[in-house]
């Protein structure tokens, strides 16, 4: 289990105090060998899974990353660097369990890369830049994906910068920025506080993912479908009956009616702490919908926020359909929220929303 989160009552939250420093020490426990035992386990790599990486095929090449040196690569970035530009085949980077404390960039010249971890609770890439330290929110991500046809499976992306206090300047701390088109994430974790997941642009698919944050923690101007995801607010607790709102799940950046972008959440769950909006209108044509999603009372009764700009009420598209739980009560929702019906939600709820029939290869997932 990664030492960088506490598992409390089934809800994972980052414990920042336990994250290893950049030059963390790794202690390997060696058992004492009896004289008759000398020919048995003597290497940390003796337990390494056989047949990893698997042999290459005509359509797939495999690379292997292990922080203990049991593979060709000890860092994720070095494996990415070893892949040739504009490869026509899929390059699967198999990453062994562990915390990889590094900043990772997948350039536009490297499409068709898969990062395959061993489970989002045991394999993670982490760093601690903020908007202040990186000269801007767009540059502070732990992992930046510019290449198209990117896939990530069973791995976490973490930004372990300190949790910001309200009003802190430059405290945005992105775990991943996804700019490449046609990208898919299955069984992944996204951990941070403010601006965790920068769903920047392109068409993206998220399935069975765990997404944690506090303020605008899913933001950007991509066109994305989130299916069966667990969304956890880690905003500070709010006293019962308080009207204070101290977070937002989404901040969608659709800027004009001509932009074919927006976020659709289907069959997700929302829980955690604090008192947060489902979304706030970061840009005037912000578009987000929630369908068949279970919401705890972490969601405020009004549900949404127009970024304190009433002129946006006429242009934003915020909708809910068939949601449940105490946070899904529609009676006090903001006036501009669309109460959708089955016909209106049809275009948003399947992979056709992101043109998945053209690119989403379930054989790759």
From TrEMBL:
It is found in: Secreted, Cell wall. One of its GO terms (biological process) is cell wall modification. It catalyses: [(1->4)-alpha-D-galacturonosyl methyl ester](n) + n H2O = [(1->4)-alpha-D-galacturonosyl](n) + n methanol + n H(+). Residues 64-357 form the Pectinesterase catalytic domain. Pathway: Glycan metabolism; pectin degradation; 2-dehydro-3-deoxy-D-gluconate from pectin: step 1/5. Pfam families: Pectinesterase. Its EC number is 3.1.1.11. SUPFAM superfamilies: Pectin lyase-like (SSF51126). Keywords: Aspartyl esterase, Cell wall, Cell wall biogenesis/degradation, Glycoprotein, Hydrolase, Secreted, Signal. One of its GO terms (molecular function) is pectinesterase activity. It comes from the Eukaryota. PROSITE patterns: PECTINESTERASE_2. The active site is at 216. Its main location: secreted. Belongs to the pectinesterase family. Acts in the modification of cell walls via demethylesterification of cell wall pectin. PANTHER family: ACYL-COA THIOESTER HYDROLASE YBHC-RELATED (PTHR31321), PECTINESTERASE 8-RELATED (PTHR31321:SF33). This is Pectinesterase. It comes from Arabis alpina (Alpine rock-cress).
């Amino acid at each position: 289990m990664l030492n960088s989160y506490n598992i409390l009552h089934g809800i994972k939250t980052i414990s920042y105090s336990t994250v290893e420093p950049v030059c963390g020490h790794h202690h390997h426990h060696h058992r004492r060998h009896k004289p008759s035992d000398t020919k048995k386990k003597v290497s940390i790599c003796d337990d390494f899974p056989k047949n990893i990486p698997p042999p290459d095929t005509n359509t797939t090449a495999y690379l292997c990353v292990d922080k203990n040196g049991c593979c060709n690569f000890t860092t994720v970035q070095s494996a990415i660097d070893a892949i040739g530009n504009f490869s026509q085949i899929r390059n699967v980077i198999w990453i062994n369990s562990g915390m990889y404390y590094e900043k990772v960039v997948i350039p536009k010249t490297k499409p068709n890369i898969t990062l395959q971890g061993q489970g989002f609770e045991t394999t993670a890439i982490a760093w601690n830049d903020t908007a202040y330290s990186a000269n801007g929110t767009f540059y502070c991500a732990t992992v930046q994906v510019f290449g198209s046809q990117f896939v990530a499976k069973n791995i976490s992306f973490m930004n372990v910068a300190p949790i910001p206090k309200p009003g802190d300047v430059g405290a945005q701390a992105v775990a991943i920025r996804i700019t490449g088109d046609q990208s898919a994430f299955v069984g992944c974790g996204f951990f941070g506080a403010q601006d965790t997941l920068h769903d920047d642009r392109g068409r993206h698919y998220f399935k069975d993912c765990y997404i944690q944050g506090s303020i605008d923690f899913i933001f950007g101007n991509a066109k994305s479908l989130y299916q069966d995801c667990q969304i956890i607010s880690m905003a500070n607790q709010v006293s019962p009956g308080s009207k204070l709102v101290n977070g937002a799940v989404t901040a969608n950046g659709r800027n004009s009616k001509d932009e074919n972008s927006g976020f659709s959440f289907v069959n997700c769950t929302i829980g955690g702490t604090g008192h947060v909006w489902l979304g706030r209108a970061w840009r005037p044509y912000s578009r987000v919908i929630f369908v068949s999603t279970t919401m705890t009372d972490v969601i405020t009764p009004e549900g949404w926020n127009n970024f304190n700009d009433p002129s946006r009420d006429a242009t934003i598209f915020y909708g809910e359909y068939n949601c449940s739980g105490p946070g899904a009560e529609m009676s006090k929702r903001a006036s501009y929220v669309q109460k959708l019906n089955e016909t209106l939600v049809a275009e948003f709820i399947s992979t056709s929303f992101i043109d998945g029939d053209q690119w989403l290869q379930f054989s790759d997932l």
